[in-house]
Specification:
CATH class: Alpha Beta
Structural class: alpha+beta
Pfam families: ThiF
Helix content: 40-55%
Protein name: THIF-type NAD/FAD binding fold domain-containing protein
Largest sheet: 5 strands, mixed
Organism: Streptococcus ovuberis
GO molecular function, one term: ubiquitin-like modifier activating enzyme activity
Distance between the termini: 38 Å
Number of domains: 1
Number of strands: 5
């Protein structure tokens, strides 16, 4: 675990929920770091960001012991990308800033999702799935994720879904 994550752990301990939208070194790497901490500390967390300039990542919202974990979602994401027409740029730093419109869309969805988790005003919308918002067309492509049978965090969810 990088030294900075030890500092992050103390912040996560005192949080009711964590929202990750960091992009360095990339959203998937930081989401893995943050999700591992949140799962260990039983903290709900929301992931979101953007890549390829015009595509925003919406979710997932992860609630330990209730929803699919980040590792299962990331596994589904990799499978989706292998079949998708999405152009993905990974680990490439650009000198241009973020697209404000895209960032605003994603941030507002994350904020509303956070309010739903904290207040139970309604069920979170982005559990067990991840959306890819194309700001050019304003379309969202959703990828639903399932628990993997061999996942330490989700195997109990897998067993429940097998009974259904």
């Amino acid at each position: 675990m990088p030294d900075n994550l030890k500092t992050l752990e103390s912040a996560v301990i005192s949080a009711d929920i964590v929202i990750n939208c960091t992009d360095y070194p990339d959203i998937n790497t930081t989401s893995t770091w943050i999700s591992n901490l949140c799962m260990k500390l039983n903290k709900p967390h929301i992931i979101g960001g953007g890549y390829s300039g015009h595509t925003g990542i919406i979710g997932p919202t992860i609630i330990p012991n209730q929803t699919v974990c980040w590792e299962c979602i990331n596994s589904s994401h990799k499978e989706f990308l292998s079949k998708s027409s999405q152009n993905v740029i990974i680990n490439m730093r650009k000198s241009a800033g973020a697209n404000v419109i895209l960032s605003s869309f994603v941030a507002n969805i994350q904020a509303w999702e956070c309010i739903k988790v904290l207040t139970n005003i309604s069920s979170p919308t982005v559990i067990n799935r991840r959306g890819f918002l194309d700001v050019n067309t304003l379309s969202i492509e959703w990828v639903t994720s399932k628990a993997r049978a061999n996942c330490d965090y989700c195997k109990h969810l897998f067993q429940v879904s097998e009974k259904d």
